[in-house]
Amino acid sequence: MFRNYFKIAWRNLWNNKLFSLINVISLAIGLSASFVIGMMVYYDFTFDKFHTDGDRIYRVTTQFNDPEGDYFSSGIPFPLVDAVKNEVSGLETAAFFHQFTSVNVKPTGTKDLFKQQDFVVFTDQGYFDLFDYYWLAGSAQKTLSQPNEVVLTEARAKLYFPNLSPSQVMGKTLNYNDSIPAVVTGVVANFAERSDLVFQEFLSLDTASQTNIHHQISGNNWYGVYNSSQLWIKIEKGTLLNNFQAQLDDIAGKHQMEEDLKFGSSREFYSQPLNNLHFNSELGIYDPDKAVADKDVLTMLGLVAMFLLLLGCANFINLNTAQASKRAKEIGIRKTLGSSKGQLIFQFLGETFLLTLIAGAVSIILSMWLIRIFEDFIADGIDISLLMNPVILLSIGTLLVIVTIAAGFYPGIVLSKFNPVRVLKGKHTEAGGKNQLRKFLTVFQFTIAFVFIISTFLVGKQIGFLINKDMGFKTESVAFIETPHYVSSLADQELLSQKLANLSQLKKVSLGGQSPASFDQSATAFVSNYDGIERETSVRLLFGDTEYLDLYEIPLLAGRKPLNDTIKEVVINTKALEKMGFDDPNEAVNQTVTSGGVPYLITGVMADFNQGSLRKEIEPMAFVGDMWRSFSSAFQVIHFNISTENYEDLTTTLADVESMYKEVYPNEPIDLKFMDETILTFYKKEQSMSKLLNWAMGLSVLISCLGLLGLVIYTTERRVKEIGIRKVLGASIVQINTLLCKDFVILIFIAFVIAIPIAYWALDNWLQDFANRTELSWWIFAGSGIAMILLALIIMSIRTIATAMADPVKSLRTE
Amino acid sequence: MIKISNLEKYYKTEEVQTIALNKLSFEIKEGEFAAIMGPSGCGKSTLLNILGLLDDPDGGSYLFNGIEVAGYNERKRAQLRKHNIGFVFQSFNLIDELSVFENVELPLIYTGVKTAERKERVHQVLEKMGIMHRRKHFPQQLSGGQQQRVAVARAVVNNPKLILADEPTGNLDSSNGNEVMDLLTELNEAGTTIIMVTHSEHDAKFSHRIIRMLDGQKVTENVLV
Ligand SMILES: Nc1ncnc2c1ncn2[C@@H]1O[C@H](COP(=O)(O)OP(=O)(O)O)[C@@H](O)[C@H]1O
Ligand SMILES: [Mg+2]
């Protein structure tokens, strides 16, 4: 019985090659998108699933509630660690660690120096009590109890001591930052499964007192919160998180900062579940090179995949119901011979499944290619081999069955309803009666296609708008070098900047902090007292020497620049001016504000400019000298303005710059960026969204047009005789073509009319996230409409014109 | 075996109502070979469809083996039909996408016969009909006479008690037509009841009894044997 079904199914597919091809392509596109997105979802949801009692593990984080917006830190103030360990009940374990970033490591007895190693932490026994590691050498008992001890992962042990086994590595010494020796007292296996806990070197906590960050992990400072100070806890079995959280709230209440409360801010501690670690972009993950999974992006991708699948199913339903009458005879005969409706539906579903299976096989090949196209969205760990994972395989199987039912059930019902008596009489029950549904599905498909087209154009327009909009400062011919300040001193930076100032091709050179628009930002709070009202304003800080504002051509609206690099003088922008309560730039000049109790004189007011992505509003900002020099210098970047005209000059200039750099920092690679290129990087997210939309548009248009082509082929075939008669009676090719295309164009137009408000609503929503928005111009809509209708006309004409030109006598004779 | 009384069937199209069967009554005994004749449009096919349980009468009674089947639902009719009735049509009605073997096999599939037995039975009838060598061909590759023989083979493969034939020779030349009539006669002699609609007096002579119809009613009956 199955063989018989299979045979007829196969022959049907084979005999209708074109329609089968259309169906396979349409379904394969949706399926492959679903496969890839399914893999991404699976990948992101299988991080850190292997820890014992993972559902009881939380990270304690800090939340600052501020009238100007909440701020989150993944770290905690150091004294909280002891408070939690000593005062809180219901905890099984608490683990504290502090990240030690960019350290140079030298295994003693070798010539190797490993620079800027990441994933080094100071921690203690608690860490290994909380997270299960497999010990290749040493043991979790009484580990890291003494200063100058270190536990390595197998990967790090291999890196530092390539030829030694884990037990041979025991007792070896590593030298950190040329000053701190540590003896290897353990080697643990790296986690075999996906994890965001990426640490590789565990120094004993007591070692930290020998480093330059000792003040971050000692003392009783409740106010300083460092992102690198991390506290993880495991609550006792059977206790509720609420119980722990209530005690945390108590502690937070006891240690609020008076100063903060006065300005309406407060601080809380928040327990972040382990399974949220991979998804919380506010709190972040430990590997700076990896992106936090974004549930919104996953949802968006999922929607795209779902729409593509629906489009494919719609094609299938349309083409199969349209062609149903071709199979009427077969069905009539089967019914006469005793087949029940159920059997027929089942048979047809079987055929659909066969086709879906073929589409599924095609999709696997397509998926490999899709993975490459969407690499911006796809984590590195995802590749086609994930498809062999049993969970994924099962999901794929389920998806194929769902698609089969979605696509095949309705056509199956239509077919099974044929009345054998009428069919066998030759009176083909016209499946055209179900035309309503086909019209509906066609409108549905083109509505989706239109929404994608309009969105693609608008998102493209918005990105162009963002990139081309004036930032408010000079961006062309400006470059900057991020100096290796972590290994050098301010004197080196000053030396290099003097050397560069002597280069004739550079117009201006300035030593300062980050560029006017950057991801890296420092901020402080200025307290102003104007008109008798005390106000606290948080401001972004822009550090620079006296050349900085001139180099970036940032105009002053009033007053003057600070006199030198270290004087306690500031220039504020207009936004800060308003926040501080001044009505006019001139009012602000010569007023005093304080930061941490230190007075600063406002010497001038600068014009507002954009400080990063134009997605964001301009924030209050203050230009200052190296205001924290005594503590830690912010002058880490050297900016310069290149005055060359042509490309050859530019290359030689850059070569000169690099050679000077090498004179000062012979061992460090140069990190030089151009301002205009840096600005482009602000829009990475928008760019990849635009890329995704381009593809979604292309594919949805492709599927819809394939479906349209199928329907046109079907209608022209059906109307061959009518066309013949019309031609005999004198109709022109154009008239016939119009006749054949008219109905479809009407449907596409209806889809356009439906798509306009949907696209408008969605895009208007999307644009709301941007402080700077392009217009939702009417011509984007009109252009999309015209383009799509033209494309549809071209596709239809391929077929209709051929039919219209065919010899009418032939078509009449065959009937 | 078959007893119909006051059988009625109407067709409604927009404004006109056609009476296809008008209080038609007759009886057919097991083992009989009956021919139904009459001008085009007098209701012969309608009658055959109702007798074959493909269609439902609008009035009257239809006893099939003593069971009242008028008013049976589609599922029950299909059940009864596939075990008891075989059809032969004027236009053969073979499935073009299936080979000769597969076409003949179909009724056995629907009655749940096992693969091995199906093969054997299909081969038996194909041999009997002289089309064994054509079993792998598709309907389009056969002549009309051959196609009708396949159709007959398909009608009898299930050993039905009743065969309904609607103008089985209508599309055949006289020599092919005679062959089909011989086949039917042979089946009848082996015990199968046959009801055949025909326009040809020649073919009608093969039967035991001719029922003549006009406007949905029986006009005469000639008993030939
Ligand atoms: N499906 C139908 N719809 C409407 N009228 C029908 C239908 N089938 C048959 N008829 C009408 O019923 C009458 C009997 O038809 P039919 O049984 O096919 O006659 P015959 O087979 O004797 O030529 C005719 O008038 C025909 O037009
Ligand atoms: Mg007839």
TrEMBL record, chain A:
Name of the protein this chain belongs to: ABC3 transporter permease protein domain-containing protein
GO CC terms of this entry: plasma membrane
Source domain of life: Bacteria
Keyword NADP applies: no
Keyword set includes Cell membrane: yes
Membrane protein topology class: Multi-pass membrane protein
Transmembrane segments: 21-43, 297-317, 344-371, 391-416, 437-459, 692-714, 744-763, 778-798
Ranges for domain MacB-like periplasmic core: 20-250, 440-657
Sample GO molecular function, one term: transmembrane transporter activity
Pfam families: FtsX, MacB_PCD
Subcellular location(s) per record: Cell membrane
TrEMBL record, chain B:
The protein's name: ABC transporter related protein
UniProt keyword terms in alphabetical order: ATP-binding, Nucleotide-binding, Transport
GO terms assigned for molecular function: ATP binding; ATP hydrolysis activity; transmembrane transporter activity
Record carries keyword Transport: yes
Pfam families (alphabetical): ABC_tran
UniProt-listed InterPro entries: AAA+_ATPase, ABC_transporter-like_ATP-bd, ABC_transporter-like_CS, ABC_transpr_LolD-like, MacB-like_ATP-bd, P-loop_NTPase
SMART domains: AAA
A GO cellular component entry from the record: membrane protein complex
Family: Belongs to the ABC transporter superfamily. Macrolide exporter (TC 3.A.1.122) family.
Taxonomic path: Bacteria, Pseudomonadati, Bacteroidota, Flavobacteriia, Flavobacteriales
Annotated ranges, domain ABC transporter: 2-225
Superkingdom field: Bacteria
